[in-house]
Amino acid sequence: MKKPKSKSKNLWTVSSLLNKNFLVRTLSGAGLLVIVLGAVLWSPFSMLVLMAVLMAGSLTEFFRIARLKGARPLVAYPVVIGLSALALAFAVQTGRCPASAFALLLPMIFALFVAELYRRHENPLGNVCWELGGLVYIALPFALLLHLRRKFQSRGNLLLSPYNITHLHCI
Q1: pLDDT in tens for each of the 171 residues of the chain?
Q2: Which member of 39, 43, 98, 141 lies 3.0 to 4.6 Å from 50 by CB, making a disulfide possible if both were Cys?
Q3: Global pTM?
Q4: What is the largest CA-CA distance in the chain?
Q5: Angstrom distance (rounded) from CA 164 to CA 150
């Protein structure tokens, strides 16, 4: 005959697992914070590389979730469009090209529609909506983050100075 397990022992193992999980998440978050702040404060190019890696990963995850919902969006091509938008935003912010260079994204976005029509999937319009949604929901905010960094640095070298924090509404 087996002895019934005591609930206090089960609670102890659940509690220790939660504490371990909390510790791992806390250390991971602290490490990521150091990486992000280091990249942002080090140079504009390091921030560009960090934003490109984070955006490519975020877009890939977004399209993976779309596939779980039953859609079949393209993955690689929208990531290329997003990275192109990020590179153009960086070039415009650093004065390397005029803002009219964003017009180069229009043929790329138009090609999304054409590519979906030739893929002959069940719901091409839904797939295009997922692809454009990912670009608007993820790529656009990442491109705007580059602009935010420049606004902060134009008011002083310290990114998180009290002036910048109290005057966020002026941006």
Answers
A1: 565 555 555 555 655 656 777 888 888 888 888 888 887 778 778 888 988 999 999 999 999 999 999 889 888 999 999 999 999 989 988 888 888 888 899 999 999 999 888 888 888 888 899 999 999 999 998 888 877 766 656 555 545 554 454 555 555
A2: 39
A3: 0.71
A4: 81
A5: 12
Say if CB 147 and CB 89 are below 8 A apart. Answer: yes
Please name the amino acid found at residue 34.
Answer: V
State the Cα–Cα distance between residues 11 and 8, nearest whole angstrom. 5
3 state DSSP class of 70: coil
Q: Are 146 and 89 in contact (CB under 8 A)?
A: yes
Residue type, 148: L
d(CA 152, CA 159): 6
Cβ count near 16 (within 10 Å): 10
**Which tokens is 98 given?**
């005029």
